[in-house]
């Protein structure tokens, strides 16, 4: 079974979304757990064995295994391997020290008003920094580098609000935001959509429109929540149309 080869799905005018090999591996393992092929308490095959069976590289497999843990399906035990701990994903995955629901609640109460303040208080230097950062993000093809800049983007918006407490809050959840961002981009194809949403935020800040900035950030966070929900509670297998590629690009 080679999950790094390209495959197409769908029919009629439903065009498939290009996904990464990691997502293909994750989907395969997740469905095996949900079917009961690996029951709660079972140990998954070794990394070497899974790489051989699925014909993917070890880094790809390890990303998929980390995603399974984030979803609450498995747990890694040092020196012993990866074990199944649930037959279905948790509805509230954890990113670092924080649950997704807690992150979203804080972001709604902090980042939305922060965007409004930033529109009123931003400097020319803030706009130059944000525009330059966004240009780099739109050109970036490496997920890890993009995720790092995504976090910097939200820190820069907080900085533009001219209240150090706001930036400190974002700093506190920075690691969790990065983990969540990587998760959503690998499994939800969020990168291009995020770039468009970030562009709308920057344009609102440049216009000095508090209303538009608040609306743009609200939309951004709503899309984050919607994508996360779709990953944790996906459509049925018949609805999925994918094209796995080890390169990890989204189409």
Automatic annotation (TrEMBL):
Domain called HTH gntR-type: residue spans: 19-87
Lineage of origin: Bacteria, Bacillati, Actinomycetota, Actinomycetes, Kitasatosporales
Entry superkingdom: Bacteria
Species, as recorded: Streptomyces violaceusniger (strain Tu 4113)
UniProt keyword Transcription, yes or no: yes
Short name of one Pfam family: FCD
Gene3D superfamilies hit by this protein: GntR ligand-binding domain-like, Winged helix-like DNA-binding domain superfamily/Winged helix DNA-binding domain
The protein, known as: GntR domain protein
Alphabetic keyword roster: DNA-binding, Transcription, Transcription regulation
Example of a GO MF term: DNA binding
